[in-house]
Design a protein that fits this description.
By secondary structure, the protein is α/β, with parallel strands linked by helices. The chain is built from 20 helices and 22 strands. Strands 1-4-3-2-5-6-7 form a 7-stranded parallel sheet, with helices on both faces. It has a 6-stranded parallel sheet with strand order 15-14-13-16-17-18, with helices on both faces. Strands 8-9-12-10-11 form a 5-stranded antiparallel sheet, with no helix packed on it. The longest helix is centred in the middle third of the chain and has 38 residues.
């Protein structure tokens, strides 16, 4: 059972570490945070080894009450992360310290204090600002600087464009990426990852590799699926009729009554001009061309005409009409232009779109993740409209610089979605931190456009699965679920090469070394695999560095062999346990 300790942190640490020899040798990790990423990270660490110990340092126990029910977790409360707090944690006993507060300054300040308390501690920092994170990584030794927003944003972008989550990484001299099977040559496919051809939950690492629609392939210079999808959208926008776009913009900017009056006057001018042209032709001027007709009509309309009593009554009447129309035309044009400018400014001030959008992506929530999603979609050339109820949200200033329209309002309200022109959108990405608001916005958007692609940010996996079944919202993502494995691997410094998000699952690409006495010695590669849990994609034989990417499936594994695998957490944990001899049992004194 977890425990809470405020004033007696050091005494509690000594008691805990002295419970037995097994506890002393077990790895000890410290996690400082107060949001779902910290909780997911602790779960990842606990799942890595059965004897791992975790200390959670939180500003308030109400921030993560779930910690009190978790075994092998000690919970301490510290309102400020300084040398005093870290001394009470006994950082000298810890293998690594993770600072995952949602504020960059808090994490960097805590890192400086931690290095004072324990100079050799391994640090894992959560930093949103990429440039700042790069500088921090240069200052601290043995430090990993990660951004959960950077890790999760590509998955949301790909889902909005209807593509698999983009993942590129280097492995044993080869560049691997995730793609749909039909988008890559068959000879480049390394491993089938998921069968997503049928609806519902995808089957991860299926036993029949030929059924896997999502595959891990070797990169051959082809663009990623997100880039291909963005190109299709750009081409579709270019094929649109410019006149139709101009007419829609005119309807949005010009007052309706003013527009009717202007069109009426223009109609009168056209009819009068046509009548004059016909009279000229009857009078013998048979060669009145189009240009002369337009020229004489506009000149008469704008400047008026000298009275000519010798002309026919029809010409005299049309001259009179054109003169009067000319008096009305100039003020009407001026009023239309001024009204359009005023309407555009009022629309921007009120958080409405002044120009119609078509096939755009609406991004709700301009926090750390939403800002990344908006920027990446914009970089791909996709038309984006952003929505946030806070006019001072983190990403609003960036949206203004990029020229992305921002609607200020609550996305859970239908009028806000209508202001974002959700009826014309191709996708809605809802990435605020409130699951209830996200769900309400998604359902309201689906009510407006039933075939809208909705990408929903939901923390709770069980809740997401039930939502998918009940409301047919098939795409949901969890930022902490996507990012926590990378933070955990950075803390443990294990041989995990990459993480691959597939829907709401995360696969690990790892290197497992087989030691003498391990359970894998003497087994074939086929016998070592676990359908749905782990699959071997490469083999480096003992004493060699060359990787066989198509090893014989009947190869008997020997001590020193290194297996390159794609696995789920549980599958990798079982494979690592089998690759090493069982640990000797310890008896507590």
């Amino acid at each position: 059972m977890a425990s809470v300790d405020l004033p007696r942190g050091r005494a509690l640490a000594r008691w805990w570490n002295g419970r037995g020899a097994g506890d002393v040798r077990a790895p000890h990790y410290v996690v400082c945070g107060r949001d779902p990423l910290a909780l997911r990270l602790i779960n990842e660490l606990l799942a890595a080894r059965p004897d791992v110990r975790v200390t959670a340092l939180v500003p308030d126990i109400a921030a993560l009450p779930e910690l009190l029910t978790m075994r092998r977790v000690r919970t301490l409360v510290a309102g400020r992360l300084d040398e005093t707090a870290f001394t009470g944690v006994d950082l000298g006993d810890a293998a690594a310290l993770a600072l995952v507060h949602p504020d960059d300054v808090t994490n960097i300040h805590a890192a400086l204090c931690a290095r004072e308390a324990a100079p050799g501690i391994r640090l894992v920092l959560r930093v949103f600002n990429g440039r700042l994170g790069a500088r921090v990584g240069e200052v601290f030794e043995d430090c990993a600087v990660l951004s959960d927003a950077s890790m999760a944003a590509p998955a949301f972008v790909a889902a909005a464009l209807g593509e698999p989550d983009p993942t590129h990484f280097r492995l044993a001299g080869r560049t691997m990426f995730v793609a749909r099977r039909h988008d890559v040559p068959p000879e480049t496919v390394v491993c089938g990852l998921a069968d997503a051809a049928v609806g519902g939950e995808p089957e991860i690492l299926p036993e029949d590799q030929a059924r896997a629609e999502i595959v891990l392939a070797e990169a051959t210079g082809r663009p990623a699926g997100t880039e291909v999808a963005a190109r299709r959208l750009r081409a579709r926008r270019r094929r649109r009729q410019p006149m139709a776009v101009m007419l829609r913009a005119g309807r949005a900017l010009v007052d309706r009554k003013l527009g009717v009056a202007l069109l009426s006057v223009l109609g009168i001018i056209m009819i009068s001009g046509g009548l004059q042209t016909r009279e000229f032709m009857r009078a013998g001027e048979r060669h009145v061309g189009l240009w002369r007709a337009i020229y004489e009509t506009l000149l008469t309309t704008v400047t008026g005409a000298d009275p000519d009593l010798a002309e026919s009554k029809i010409l005299q009447a049309t001259d009179l009409v054109l003169t009067l129309a000319g008096l009305a035309l100039i003020p009407l044009i001026t009023a239309a232009v001024v009204g359009a400018v005023v309407n555009a400014r009022l629309a921007l001030a009120a958080g409405r779109l002044a120009i119609p959008h078509q096939d755009h992506v609406v991004v709700v929530g301009l926090g750390t993740v939403g800002t990344r999603v908006m920027a990446q979609l914009h970089d791909l050339g996709v038309d984006v409209v952003a929505v946030d109820k806070d006019p001072g949200a983190r990403g609003v200033s960036l949206a203004r610089r990029l020229g992305v329209p921002v609607i200020t309002g609550d996305a859970a309200r239908e009028e806000t979605l209508h202001a974002a022109q959700i009826g014309n959108a191709q996708a809605l990405v809802v990435v605020s931190t409130d699951d209830v608001t996200n769900l309400q916005a998604a359902l309201n958007a689906r009510a407006v456009k039933p075939d809208l692609r909705v990408v929903l940010r939901l923390y709770d996996g069980d809740f997401a699965r039930r939502i998918q079944r009940a409301f047919q919202i098939a795409i949901s993502r969890s930022v902490s679920y996507l990012a926590a494995p990378a933070f955990a691997e950075a803390m443990m410094d294990r041989e995990v090469k990459a993480t691959i998000p597939v829907a709401r699952h995360v696969l690990l690409v790892a290197e497992v070394t087989v030691t003498a006495g391990g359970g894998l010695v003497g087994r074939t590669l086929d016998a070592s695999e676990r359908p749905g849990g782990a699959r071997v994609i490469g083999l480096a034989r003992a004493g060699g560095s060359w990787v066989d990417w198509q090893p014989p499936r009947d190869h008997e594994i020997g001590p020193g062999d290194r297996l390159l695998v794609v696995a789920r957490r549980q599958g990798l944990r079982e494979l690592i346990a089998d690759a090493n001899p069982p640990a000797p049992e310890t008896v507590a004194p």
